[in-house]
């Protein structure tokens, strides 16, 4: 079925239909501006629309999986560890975390170590990066 908006739109719709078939999902919907954005991006990058779409989809799926993994890790934290993780993400030091939560600095350090272990990370900066899109302002 061809669109009424001209040959370029027809080509874009065909690309989208191929992408939907490749995904095995006929339920995906996309609007014309999104299709045109894909076309423009492909032209700017001098790549095929299929290659750009595949890269975008792969990146989006990876981001979604990482976000889900982060949420599962967060849910495994105790309430105290969640507080500590939030404060780490707000750039608090162990001493500041200890003062804020009325615990010893060594206890704060232990909580940070446990949080990093549960997230499978080695450094505080990695935790801040993993949760960079999360809003921890309520913890301040």
How would you explain this protein's 3D organization?
- This protein folds into 2 domains: 7-64; 77-139, Winged helix-like DNA-binding domain superfamily/Winged helix DNA-binding domain (Arc Repressor Mutant, subunit A, Orthogonal Bundle).
- The protein has 140 residues and is mainly alpha-helical.
- Helix content is 71%, strand content 0%.
CATH topology of the largest domain: Arc Repressor Mutant, subunit A
Give the strand content: under 5%
Number of strands: 0
Question: Which CATH first-tier class of the largest domain would you pick?
Answer: Mainly Alpha
The helical percent reads over 70%
> What does the overall shape look like?
elongated
Largest sheet: none
Q: Do you know the CATH architecture of the largest domain?
A: Orthogonal Bundle
- Which class of secondary structure composition applies to the elements? mainly alpha
CATH superfamily of the largest domain: Winged helix-like DNA-binding domain superfamily/Winged helix DNA-binding domain
Low-confidence blocks of residues: none
* Tally of contiguous helical segments: 7
Q: Kindly give the count of domains.
A: 2
The value of Rg in angstroms is 22 Å
Structure, briefly:
With 140 residues, this protein is mainly α. 71% of the residues lie in helices and 0% in strands. The mean pLDDT is 87.
């Amino acid at each position: 079925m061809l669109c009424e908006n001209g040959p370029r739109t027809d080509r874009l719709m065909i690309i989208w239909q191929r992408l939907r078939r490749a995904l095995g999902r006929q339920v995906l919907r996309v609007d014309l501006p999104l299709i045109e954005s894909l076309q423009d991006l492909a032209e700017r990058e001098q790549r095929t629309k299929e290659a750009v779409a595949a890269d975008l989809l792969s990146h989006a799926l990876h981001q979604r999986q990482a976000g889900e993994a982060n949420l599962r890790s967060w849910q495994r934290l105790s309430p105290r560890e969640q507080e500590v993780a939030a404060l780490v993400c707000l750039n608090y030091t162990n001493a500041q975390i200890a003062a804020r939560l009325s615990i010893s600095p060594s206890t704060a350090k232990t909580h940070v170590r446990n949080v990093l272990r549960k997230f499978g990370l080695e450094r505080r900066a990695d935790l801040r990066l993993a949760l960079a899109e999360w809003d921890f302002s309520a913890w301040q």
